[in-house]
Amino acid sequence: YRAGVFDTMNMDKVSEGTYKAKEAARILDVTSSTLIRWEKMGRLSCVRTPGNQRLYIRKDVDRLADELAGK
Length: 71
Hints:
- The chain is an alpha+beta fold.
- It has helices at residues 11-16, 21-28, 32-41, 58-68; strands spanning 18-20, 46-48, 54-57.
- Strands 1-3-2 form a 3-stranded antiparallel β-sheet.
């Protein structure tokens, strides 16, 4: 078990508060490469599924979307 990786029993609860990478990229109007760069910079948080897919934390994506929109 690694930090940030959830077992399948907890995935339903985790997915409620997250966006898939494609969804987050669409909301923020950026590429997936930009998401990964922002993740590495600490600008966005994500968790990994057991299949190693990134799920971006919904509140972080929404906050960043507001910032980018100048709100």
